[in-house]
Specification:
11 helices; 41% helix; binds manganese (II) ion; 12 strands; globular; alpha/beta; binds 3-isopropylmalic acid
């Protein structure tokens, strides 16, 4: 029997509630599909920071490096200044574990409401591959003459050949394996970002011609990409893009698939330890009320199992989610027609 050592960072706000439901589902899948999930809890988040001043110490990073995967709930606390926990925990783990891909499927399920007119599950089904360790998130830059009228603030976008090519390689391979339209769209801004987008575009063209003759190469500027995501989402199969563009376009993608209650993603290091999370935040105002939607967290576990090779279990969780979603009048917190725990129960029962 395969055993997986999984780290659990339930985190802040509604994080622990949604992770509970996801683990409930995981525990059913474990019995049914004959694998073992050994869970290790990590106390990280706003509460720990407020108590000890620690975000994510090196000792924790070292422990995380010894796991098979990480399950994350949510990070973000109303009493902590914005940026501290996001950078000190979420980005710190992404960077320290070199999770260089952020994989974000945009898939609308039957009976889920989308704000896009005349679009349904057939039209909204693509995947965004976001670079996850470089670009504007690299943290280089600085201030000159801070606090004076002559202040200068510089935030660099760092794009390395290594970072760009490994991300593109993942996206090409993903488009091939997904085997839908076998089309990869590069989302960049070559008309203005004549250095960074040029590196992306050149590498994209070269790799495509050399190693991926079976994949159709497509390009869209980022501003056009968001327009097409609304107007013609069916044009997309796999989109690959840099860190900040990926951050922005995936919130749009998430809302077209039913919102933060259902959208999940994976921070992936194909050669190391990956971390799976619901895309939404900690939603503090809903904490402890049994009203938050756990499906995004459950789908993040589904992605994790698929990634770990437990393909049958992953398929079953997805089909159970699809059935339960049909029973819910809405995916929004407090409007699901049932509580957080009931959604988890209903999905677990079907497994
Ligand atoms: C996300 C989030 C994070 C990001 C924040 C919280 C740092 O918005 O996962 O998309 O920008 O990557
Ligand atoms: Mn984001």
């Amino acid at each position: 029997m395969k055993t997986y050592k999984l780290g659990v960072i339930a985190g802040d706000g509604t994080g622990p509630e949604v992770v509970n439901e996801a683990i409930k589902v995981l525990k059913c899948a474990e019995k049914k599909y004959n694998f073992k999930a050994e869970l290790v809890n990590f106390d990280l988040g706003g509460a720990r920071y407020l108590k000890t001043g620690e975000t994510c110490p090196e000792t924790v990073i070292n422990e995380l490096k010894g796991l098979d995967a990480i399950i994350l709930g949510a990070i973000g606390h109303p009493e902590v200044k914005p940026g501290i926990l996001e950078q000190g925990i979420l980005l710190k783990i992404r960077f320290a574990l070199d999770q260089y891909i952020n994989l974000r499927p945009v898939k609308l399920y039957e009976n889920v409401e989308t704000p896009l007119k005349n679009k349904g599950p057939k039209e909204i089904d693509y995947v965004v591959v976001r670079e996850n360790t470089e670009g504007l998130y690299a943290g280089t830059g600085g201030f000159l003459k801070k606090g004076t009228p002559d202040e200068v603030a510089i935030q660099d976008s760092v794009n390395t050949y290594k970072g760009v090519s490994r991300c593109l390689k993942f996206a090409f391979e993903y488009a091939r394996k997904r085997n839908k339209d076998k089309k990869l769209t590069l989302c960049a801004k070559t008309n203005v970002l004549t250095y960074s987008s040029d590196l992306w575009n050149r590498t994209f063209r070269n790799m495509g011609a050399k190693d991926y003759p079976d994949i159709k190469l497509d390009y869209a500027h980022v501003d056009a990409t968001v327009m097409w995501m609304v107007k013609n989402p069916e044009w997309f199969d796999v989109i690959v893009t840099d860190n900040i563009f990926g951050d922005i376009i995936t919130d749009l993608g998430a809302i077209t698939q039913g919102g933060m209650g259902v959208a999940a993603g994976g921070n992936i290091n194909p050669e190391g330890v990956s971390m799976f999370e619901p895309i939404g935040g900690s939603a503090p105002k809903y904490t402890g009320q049994n009203v938050i939607n756990p499906i995004a967290s459950i789908m993040s576990i589904q992605m994790m199992l698929d990634y770990l090779g437990e393909v049958e279990a992953a398929k079953k969780i997805e089909s159970a989610v699809m059935e339960v979603i049909k029973l819910m009048p809405s995916q929004a917190a407090g409007k699901m027609g049932m509580g957080t725990k009931e959604v988890g129960d209903k999905i677990a029962e079907r497994i």
